[in-house]
Amino acid sequence: MKGKQNKKRLKPILKKSMLTALGLGIALPIGGTLPQANAGEIGPEIKISRPVLNDGIHWLNYSSEQNDPSFVSGIPIEVTNRTVTIDLSTHFHPDEFNIISATSGDYSVASVYIEGGNKLVVVPYRSGKINIELKAKYTVSDVPETVTDNFELYISKKGDVNADGKVNSADAAELLTYLRNMVSRRGYSYVEMNRMDVDRNAEPTLGDMNALLNGYANKTLGAKNNDYVLTFQQVDDAPYVLNGQLKNYMENAIATDYYLMDVDGDDIDYINTPSYQWYRATDPSGEDRVLIEGETAEQHTLTFEDEDYYLVLEVTAHSTSDANTEPRRVYIVGKEKIQRPD
């Protein structure tokens, strides 16, 4: 499950001399002077344009065309004209997981399914964005637990640089802005940069402006072209607290034992220590738990007030990758009521 972030990016090669030539040598058409075509309709047969890129999914290769040995190795992105296939047997190792499933956030944009038990197959249909939800059973726990991993897929027709569903002069303006900003090194996401790469050579440069304008002139972009650009992007998931148990730490103390797993495969989240809160309950399910004021440590020292109650520990795992990610809360219930020794 662990992985390393691949920091290699698309190569934004643009010298100041090129920028000067771009500013003086190209008269950008205004308004609707370039042909316009809908760029999101389902064609008779969609064609996936290579490379398919990955923006920040740590366990997945950066690119479907990854031949550079300087890349950090991950799971390959296998691409045909119609489908993308990703082998999940390393991400969800069979010694730890089974029953893998996949769900698309919008099946009119792209469908997803699991083939052969561990291969994710993605079939894009039109422009748009979907959330892909992977689920798997973690079988190492005493009781199998379900974990979920989310990421997104962005789909746009080739030449639709600004992803507005049309191919027109607005895309040329967007690309011009991008090329100018690369001199000042304003940040762009892989999703944006992949759309800018009109000539599909993984290097957004002046050549992409030429490819875009030539596409207009020769009518090879827009409604008559069925090439689509795909980019996967990380969605941050809070770490999981798995196989949690309460155990006698010492004669008068109870502590917890659990496995903290970051399903995103990013070790950063492991750095953040979970927070704790102890409760008492009369029901073995812990549903009627009542908070014990001030008990927020990983270990709880028993008192006479705990007698004949089930102890419950709330463990809250936080993400350090994205402050907006909802924390994940788990309640670990003691197997027996507390009976203090005489």
How would you portray this structure in words?
- The protein is mainly beta.
- The chain has two domains: 23-234, no CATH class; 240-333, Immunoglobulin-like, CATH 2.60.40.
- It is 13% helix and 34% strand.
- The chain has four helices and 18 strands.
- It has helices at residues 16-25, 169-184, 190-196, 206-218, and strands spanning 37-38, 47-55, 78-79, 84-87, 97-104, 110-115, 119-124, 128-138, 145-157, 166-167, 227-234, 240-250, 253-261, 275-281, 290-291, 299-301, 310-317, 328-333.
- The chain has a five-stranded mixed β-sheet with strand order 2-11-9-8-5, with helices on one face.
- β6 and β7 form a beta hairpin.
- α2 (169-184) packs antiparallel against α4 (206-218).
- It is elongated, with a radius of gyration of 26 Å.
Main attributes of the structure:
mainly beta, 2 domains, five-stranded mixed beta sheet, Immunoglobulin-like
Chain-wise SSE layout:
Elements: H1 16-25, E1 37-38, E2 47-55, E3 78-79, E4 84-87, E5 97-104, E6 110-115, E7 119-124, E8 128-138, E9 145-157, E10 166-167, H2 169-184, H3 190-196, H4 206-218, E11 227-234, E12 240-250, E13 253-261, E14 275-281, E15 290-291, E16 299-301, E17 310-317, E18 328-333
Parallel strand pairs: 2-11
Antiparallel strand pairs: 1-10, 3-4, 4-7, 5-8, 6-7, 8-9, 9-11, 12-13, 13-16, 14-15, 14-17, 17-18
